[in-house]
Design brief:
The chain is mainly α. The chain has two domains: 65 residues, 434 Repressor (Amino-terminal Domain), CATH 1.10.260.40; 32 residues. The chain is 70% helix and 0% strand. Keywords: DNA-binding. This is Helix-turn-helix domain-containing protein. It comes from Bariatricus massiliensis.
Length: 106
């Protein structure tokens, strides 16, 4: 797969997952809708700084962007397990757990 194909498809996948429109992603990244449209049309490839802005909008790292869904190459097995468990909690349980973890930092 060509890089421009992968990048465009991955950004579309992340937009779908997060419920982002092209407009919303443009607002979050400071990019124009035209620039994003060119990426989606596979006529341009974002620079690394631009790709970092896109990743920031999705709250993922560059490594996670290129690894794809479900694979987090920058995390240990224990960290992956914690994230799996976290995703099964509801919002209130996540809030309680965060408060508990923060209390351990002292």
């Amino acid at each position: 797969m060509r890089v421009e194909d992968y990048v465009a498809e991955r950004i579309k996948e992340l937009c779908d997952k997060h419920g982002f429109s092209k407009y919303r992603l443009a607002r979050l990244t400071g990019m124009s809708q035209t620039a994003l449209g060119n990426i989606f049309a596979k006529t341009s490839i974002p620079t690394i700084p631009t790709l970092e802005k896109i990743c920031e909008a999705f709250d993922i790292s560059l490594a996670q962007f290129f690894a794809g869904e479900g694979d987090r190459p920058d995390l240990t097995d224990a960290q992956k397990e914690i994230l799996e468990l976290w995703s099964e909690l509801n919002a209130e349980e996540q809030k309680i757990l965060l408060k508990f973890i923060r209390s351990l930092e002292s």
